[in-house]
Amino acid sequence: MAGPILTVRGVERRFGPVNGGTLALQATDLDVAENDFITILGPSGCGKSTLLRIVAGLDHPTAGTVDLDGRRIDGPGADRGMVFQSYTLFPWLNVLDNVCFGLRERGLPRAQQLEQAGAFIAKVGLRGFEQHFPKQLSGGMQQRVAIARALANRPRMLLMDEPFGALDHQTRELMQELLLGIWEAERTTVLFVTHDIDEAVFMGSRVVVMSARPGRIKLDRVVPLPHPRHYAVKTTPDFMALKAELTEQVRDEVRAAQSAQATA
Amino acid sequence: MKPLVPVAPGTRTVLGVAFFVLFVAVWAAATFGGLVSKTFLADPLTMVQSGWTLLTKMGFAADIGMTVWRVLGGFVIAAAIALPLGVAMGAYKPVEAFFEPFVSFARYLPASAFIPLLILWVGIGEAQKLAVIFIGSFFQLVLMVAVVVGNTRRDLVEAAYTLGSTDASLVRRVLIPGAAPEIAEILRMVLGWAWTYVIVAELIGASSGIGHMITDSQALLATDQIIFGIIVIGLIGLVSDFGFKQLNRKLFPWAQLGR
After folding, report:
1. Partner-chain contact A133 B257, CB within 8 Å
2. pTM of the prediction?
3. DSSP line for B16-59
4. Domain span at residue A236?
């Protein structure tokens, strides 16, 4: 396999004054290879979202560097598509125009926009909903549109910040399968933040566990499950073994976070 | 009745009309019943009759047209400058820091208090009327538009950036369309205020317009005409408000969803 497309080197993020303040993320290194699906797992407040936002260019590290394809990242760009936990479809645009948004920014001719957007709307199973406004859709459907919108832009990487966090359990599982199916077909490189261990193992080709604040990468495991994955994989011994190990690790961190909070 | 439970559309109309009926009934009872002297308050019938005379024999329609023209003229000029400035202030914080303190101060300057000064500066012609309406609506518009644009959801802004938006296209394709329905609401509200300013402007130093007719009628103790003038203003306000609401609904169907 070729070298990593994304390299994170010594990235640190401190909020507040330089001396003192809160260290949200401490000297983090991470390499992401082409076609990787990396899930970042950790307790809330461990800086996993901060790391993702730094890769997106929406936040800036107080130290360290992030390079995509050898180019330094210093701001957001269309090469890193993002799906947020909150519903971020533009409420004044219908489904079709939401998916066209990035394509229009790139100045693609309308016919090409429609063709590309239509293809991704079909991939997320929303054909027939092109003219609906976001408020007319359920939360799960809105996130499907958000995924289509990000993918239609053909980003180098897809960044996902707990995209299914606000959905109910059943919808979330269906969304996981949908996204995994799309990834198995498209092989877009994905960085996926979650606090759901099942989700992390089921979706990821690699799981990265982060420690409690100040966040750093504590564990990095390749997921030994073949593709394509069926939801039944969640009951296999390999899945259970990895899940058990990660559960232990995350529990330790949640405990550490709680005792840190108690003494603070 | 339960709190916050919506009322059926039919009932809503009936209730709304009912108060108008009640209002006129009380008015009629007070005047025809002799509770209030005719010198101070004309009865509804006399009001309608003299209103008709005003319209048919005394060219009141031209006065109404004049007043409408002034309101719209002053308001359009104010909006044409206030909208871009408000958007710029909402979007760019240094621009806001530069203008906001002054505009906040200026909006408390009563437009009507400028009338003597404006008469001195530009006379009692149309420029003075337009200027009063401009002063009355411009500063309010700027501030409210700036607040609405500045309150754009940050996650939508971030989403746009990750889709490749530049700073300029963010303003054009996210900040403005997102704020548009609320800006339209602001325009509707401030237009209502502009109506009060035009009448004040016409009460002092005007030779035409609804306000001018009202001042003339005062000299003649013609309360019927004064009331007719006031009601005409109210009706025009009601109609323009309704028109504005319908237009907003048509232009921004998405903003009506989930309300």
Report:
1. yes
2. 0.87
3. HHHHHHHHHHHHHHHHHTTSS-TTT---HHHHHHHHHHHHHHS-
4. 34-60+75-79+155-263
Q: Does A35 touch chain B (CB under 8 A)?
A: no
Instruction: Per-residue pLDDT tens, chain B, 259 aa: give them.
Output: 889 898 999 999 999 999 999 999 999 999 999 888 888 888 899 999 999 999 998 889 999 999 999 999 999 999 999 999 999 999 999 999 999 999 999 988 888 888 888 888 988 888 989 999 999 999 999 999 999 999 999 999 999 999 999 999 999 999 999 999 999 999 999 998 898 888 888 888 788 889 889 988 888 888 889 999 999 999 998 899 899 999 999 999 888 876 5
CATH code for position A195: 3.40.50.300
Give this complex's ipTM.
0.91
Considering only CB atoms, B165 lies closest to which of A57, A105, A150, namely: A105
In a domain, A192, yes or no: yes
Let me know if residue A28 belongs to a domain.
no
Q: B160 — contact with chain A (CB < 8 Å)?
A: yes
Domain membership flag for residue A148: no
Contacts of B253 in chain A (CB under 8 A): 133
Please state the domain count of chain A.
1
Containing H/E element for B159?
A: helix B154-162
C-alpha distances (whole Å) from B226 to each of A215, B67, B115, B231 are: 74, 15, 22, 9
User: Residue A246 is which amino acid?
Assistant: L
Contacts of A58 in chain B (CB under 8 A): 158, 161-162
- The structural domains of chain B, with segments of one domain joined by +, span 41-252
**CATH code of domain B41-252:** 1.10.3720.10
Which of chain B's residues have a Cβ under 8 Å away from the Cβ of A148?
A: none
